[in-house]
Design goal:
single chain, four-stranded mixed beta sheet, extended, disordered N terminus
Length: 654
């Protein structure tokens, strides 16, 4: 036990390090297998084992350590050996984390190891270091103990040096596919030929690539994952080998993948249904008998069921039995949402002030496959009702709907009461969401004069419209990468109490992009709108445009960047332009969900292009990326108004 006697102990250790065969014999005598050595003249075959396999003896070392610790009191920590590794950065970390000697030093019972045990660990370290280097692709590495100091009352200091030598690279690759994929490809089946070609072209270790255990394992995993994703659910490796030639530093790879059978759709088996028709759920699959069960098709079916709004939880998988692959059972497990739900919410916005809302959803109205939604909002500056009755999603991803809306909005300058009735059909494809509808809009617009509303105009319009939404983001709730694009087009007939009847056309688009730059998260927005009418024709306020406020141009009051009337009121414009750029960054590592932000906004609504002079707003803010969405507090300076404003947007559902 420590303290060590400097003379005989150190001489014995140096002798063990200098005499490899004797050290191996000594390890065998103690029941510990000797570390393997590589021959410089014969190729080495790399087995399919994890890169950490050479480190397995560390666990065996821990067992005698525990026994030794139970028989003797541990010496002071200062008496433990000190290990220093001299190797390139990537290899240094590998050795420090996986050498038996390094791992033993980290054990709680390290102080109870005997002198003989430390001698064994130190003597075995060079061979283990060379084995670990091979897992990283260095098959000619040379390791040795270059310095051994201390002893007695001083801790023993051990320096292990590793010269890695050249890296091993891929010389030749032989990748073969067998099983049903091979048979289908040879028969000329286009999908099978394309998949086989894809596997060959996307093999991750082509000639010339650097070889190591991690890359070798990842390449094999990628092939099996691609086969299973394409419907070959029982795919496996029939055989793999990597033959290393240390003289040429090249590896020859042999790999034979067995695709197994192609799984094809059979019966759709549903569990968890209580109220809804199972045949309607089956039709949503889009899986005709015999359709290959690819991962994309199963995920698409699962997403269709999720979009119905009828289930809280959906899982779609298949029976993995290879004997039933020709007609595999599609397994659907669902948990139905409650028949009726009511959600209340409190919120506040600097645009419309404090508000309360109530939303009610009935998912099987009067026992029919209909969903009814009603939402009421009561706020200081805005009160509204929005309702919709829609059919269930069908196998074409469509639903028919009828909806209505009544909204009353007050500002310091005007009051607008809008009513809307809509009949249409929505289509919810994975790439684009589409809504085609006929709409009737009416509005009553009044100018505010103190506590009175004057000069009220009534406007009406009937139109045919189509909306499109493209969405590709990493998270719908809290996006950081991707984009969303919405576009609206419509035309119809408009009339008013103070305007003449006539046709009109309307177009609107909004693009929002998210992209990370270094440690910063950037968001950009562009919004454009245009209403086309003959002279003397006007459309309701809900079809015109205004700018200013939250989610528009910060630094200005809500909906105030718009044309003015002859009596000083504000009204909607025939054209719109707004844009925004924002960068945000977490305030601290301890609060990753709280971000600081800098932004610049610009825009305006107008009736003429000559009047479309963007108002500029800029400032800073704080974001909390809460579970219910991003909550924002901003301070913005409106350059045109020469004043600052606080913008607060908070909403929590419960």
């Amino acid at each position: 036990m420590f303290p060590l006697r400097p003379g005989p102990w150190r001489r014995a250790l140096w002798l063990a390090l200098a005499m490899g065969p004797l050290a191996a014999w000594a390890q065998a005598a103690e029941g510990v297998p000797a570390a393997p050595t590589a021959s410089a003249s014969a190729p080495a075959v790399v087995p399919d084992t994890a890169a950490s396999a050479p480190s397995a003896p560390a666990d065996a070392a821990a067992e005698p350590a525990s026994a030794a610790a139970s028989d003797a009191a541990p010496p002071p920590a200062a008496a433990l050996p000190r290990l220093s590794v001299d190797a390139p950065g990537d290899l240094r970390a590998l050795l420090e984390n996986n050498l038996d000697l390094a791992r033993a030093l980290k054990l709680p019972e390290a102080g109870g190891l005997s002198d003989a045990e430390w001698s064994r660990l130190i003597a075995a370290a060079p061979a283990q270091a060379e084995d670990l280097a091979r897992t990283a692709g260095y098959f000619n590495a040379q390791a040795r103990i270059t310095q051994l100091e201390g002893g007695g009352a001083q801790p023993l200091r051990v320096t292990l040096s590793l010269e890695p030598g050249p890296t091993v690279r891929i010389g030749r690759v032989t990748l073969q596919i067998q099983g049903e994929l091979y048979d289908l490809a040879e028969e000329g089946q286009a999908d099978a030929q394309a998949l086989r070609q894809q596997l060959e072209q996307q093999w991750a270790l082509p000639p010339g690539a650097r070889f190591n255990e991690d890359a070798w394992g990842s390449a094999k995993t990628a092939v099996i994952a691609a086969l299973r994703s394409a419907g070959y659910g029982a795919a496996s490796w029939a055989g793999t080998a990597a033959e290393v030639d240390p003289q040429t530093n090249q590896v020859r790879i042999f790999a034979v993948a067995d695709s197994g059978p192609l799984y094809r759709a059979g019966e759709v088996q549903i569990s968890g249904l209580q109220r809804h028709d199972p045949e309607r759920i089956r039709r949503l699959s889009g899986l005709a008998p015999g359709t290959p069960l690819t991962e994309a098709r199963l995920q698409d079916y699962q997403e269709r069921l999720r979009k119905t709004g009828l289930f809280d939880q959906v899982t779609v998988s298949m029976d993995p039995d290879p004997e039933q692959a020709g007609h595999a059972t599609v397994l659907v497990q669902v948990r139905e949402s409650q028949l009726q739900t009511a959600t209340t919410a409190l919120g506040i916005s600097t645009s419309t002030g404090p508000r309360a809302s109530l939303e009610h959803v009935h998912r099987q109205l009067f026992g029919y496959p209909l969903t009814a939604t009603n939402k009421f909002v009561w706020g200081k500056s805005e009160q509204s009702w929005n309702g919709e009755l829609s059919t269930y999603l069908n196998e074409h991803l469509q639903r028919d709907l009828v909806g209505g809306q009544v909204d009353r909005l007050f500002t310091d300058e005007d009051m607008v009461i809008s009513q809307r009735l809509r009949v249409g059909r929505s289509t919810e494809h994975p790439v684009v969401e589409r809504l085609d509808y006929l709409e009737l809009d009416t509005s009553k617009e009044c100018t505010r004069d103190g506590g009175q509303y004057i000069n009220c105009d009534t406007l009406k319009a009937v139109s045919a419209d189509t909306d499109r939404t493209w969405r590709k983001v990493d998270s719908v709730l809290l996006p950081t990468t991707g984009y969303t694009l919405s576009a609206q087009f419509g035309s119809g007939l408009a009339d008013g109490s103070a305007t003449r009847r006539g046709v009109f056309g309307r177009a609107y688009g909004r693009l929002t992009m998210y992209w990370p730059v270094g440690g910063w998260y950037t968001q950009g927005r562009l919004e454009l709108g245009k209403v086309l009418t003959p002279a003397g024709v006007q459309v309701p306020d809900s079809l015109r445009f205004r700018a200013g406020g939250d989610n528009s141009v910060r630094g200005y009051a809500y909906r105030t960047l718009a044309p003015t009337t002859s009596d000083g009121g504000i009204t909607g414009g025939r054209m719109l332009f707004t844009t925004s750029v924002e960068v945000a960054h977490p305030i601290s590592d301890s609060l990753p969900s709280v971000w600081g932000a800098l932004f610049v906004d610009a825009g305006r609504a107008a009736d003429k292009i000559s009047e479309l002079k963007p108002a500029l707003g800029y400032g800073l803010g704080v974001r909390w990326r809460s579970p219910v969405g991003p909550l924002a507090v901003d301070w913005a300076w409106g350059q045109e108004d020469h004043r600052g404003r606080i913008h607060l947007n908070v909403g929590i559902a419960f």
